[in-house]
């Protein structure tokens, strides 16, 4: 692996605004840049709700919050104009040697275009969509260099390849997320997190399966904890807690508090969702449940150490309790 030794730091701006899982999948790209350019200054533009994840990454120097979603909905509000000006001031206070759009959408293309390059700096972006990913043409129009990607590419690999191509290094064999999470004072390695919430109904696992799995884990000495991000998920958590002995519904938490709480548990079992991807980034024992064959695109990749701690299980119409239970025992062995 090539390690650059220069006096002036390489200044890189990563543009990856959302969503939760996509932001988590982009963390290794920032770690790769740092591994190849130890004195690099890596700034990152991200939506405010996901900023705590990026701030926890050891490779990131500065986080620039960009609330485009809110500003679009409140375009005529006085506070929108104030916040937009503040964002532009923060974005443009630094000139970058490389501005890398890892989102591939119009909104990220806008941010990439507004950011300022150094005298020899360039804007980089993906030249094409990959299987299962969203892509909009403005991202290529704004880029000085558009990087071609193979169609069948994991969401995490996509970002790593774009950064490696832009900055002329080989993708490292070591995979890291760089999350620095303060451990909770309540460190209970007999607690298992059930991540049942997801933005799509077709990704959900049947309530009866969660019940049966919860009983098995309870009989094995584990306590089940249930996070939630909205009222619908809270009601489902309450229903599940009533069916599983000693299960607890966690209060709704900010993402940084949730990461801290998750980091102190025995592990996570969950559907394809942002919290499941955080479990992988935290290197927790984890089983990720898929109702269709998309685990190759978003599921656990590689491992942070020599032990296999995260695995995905895929079946149609949905994986069985026995399959999930078997993989969980492998992950914690």
Question: What does the model show?
Answer:
The protein is an alpha/beta fold. It is built from 13 helices and 12 strands. It has helices at residues 20-36, 51-55, 68-73, 78-91, 106-114, 138-142, 155-167, 207-219, 231-243, 255-263, 274-281, 295-298, 321-332; strands spanning 11-15, 41-46, 60-65, 95-101, 116-126, 145-147, 191-195, 223-226, 248-249, 267-271, 286-290, 310-314. The chain has a 6-stranded parallel sheet, with helices on both faces. Helix 1 runs parallel beside helix 7 (155-167) and helix 8 (207-219) packs across helix 13 (321-332). It is globular. The two termini are 33 Å apart. The model has no long low-confidence stretch (mean pLDDT 94).
Reported by name, the CATH topology of the largest domain is Rossmann fold
The SS-based structural class is alpha/beta
Task: Give the SSE order as H and E letters.
Answer: EHEHEHHEHEHEHEHEHEHEHEHEH
Structural domains: how many: 2
Q: Roughly how many Å is the radius of gyration?
A: 21 Å
Secondary structure elements and pairings:
Blueprint: E1 11-15, H1 20-36, E2 41-46, H2 51-55, E3 60-65, H3 68-73, H4 78-91, E4 95-101, H5 106-114, E5 116-126, H6 138-142, E6 145-147, H7 155-167, E7 191-195, H8 207-219, E8 223-226, H9 231-243, E9 248-249, H10 255-263, E10 267-271, H11 274-281, E11 286-290, H12 295-298, E12 310-314, H13 321-332
Parallel strand pairs: 1-2, 1-4, 2-3, 4-5, 5-6, 7-8, 7-10, 8-9, 10-11, 11-12
Helix pairs in contact: 1-7, 1-11, 8-13
């Amino acid at each position: 692996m090539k390690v650059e030794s220069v006096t002036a730091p390489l200044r890189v701006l990563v543009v990856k605004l959302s969503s939760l899982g996509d932001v988590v999948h982009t963390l290794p790209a920032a770690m790769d840049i740092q591994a190849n350019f130890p004195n690099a200054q890596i700034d990152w533009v991200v939506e405010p709700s996901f900023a705590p994840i990026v701030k926890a990454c050891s490779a990131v120097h500065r986080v620039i919050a960009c609330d485009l979603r809110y500003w679009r909905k409140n375009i005529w509000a006085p506070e929108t104009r104030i916040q937009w000006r503040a964002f532009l001031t923060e974005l443009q206070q630094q000139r970058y040697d490389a501005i890398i759009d890892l989102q591939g959408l119009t909104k990220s293309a806008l941010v990439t275009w507004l950011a300022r390059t150094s005298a020899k700096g360039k804007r980089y972006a993906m030249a094409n969509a990959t299987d299962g990913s969203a892509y909009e043409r403005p991202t290529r129009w704004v880029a000085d260099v558009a990087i071609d990607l193979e169609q069948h590419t994991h969401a995490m690999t996509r970002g790593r390849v774009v950064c490696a191509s832009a900055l002329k290094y080989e993708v490292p064999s070591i995979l890291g997320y760089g999350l620095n999470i303060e451990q909770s004072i309540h460190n209970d390695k007999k607690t298992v997190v059930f991540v049942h919430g997801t933005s799509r109904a077709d990704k959900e696992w049947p309530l009866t399966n969660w019940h049966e799995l919860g009983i098995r884990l309870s009989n094995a000495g584990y306590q089940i904890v249930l996070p939630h991000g909205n009222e619908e998920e809270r009601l489902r958590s309450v229903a599940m807690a009533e069916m599983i002995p000693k299960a607890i519904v966690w209060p709704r938490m900010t993402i940084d508090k949730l990461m801290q709480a998750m980091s102190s548990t025995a592990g996570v079992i969950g559907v394809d969702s942002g919290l499941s991807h955080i479990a992988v980034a935290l290197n927790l024992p984890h089983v990720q449940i898929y109702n269709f064959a998309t685990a190759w695109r978003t599921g656990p990749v590689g491992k942070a150490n020599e032990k296999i701690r995260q695995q995905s299980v895929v079946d149609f119409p949905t994986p069985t309790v026995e399959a999930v239970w078997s993989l969980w025992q492998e992950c914690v062995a």
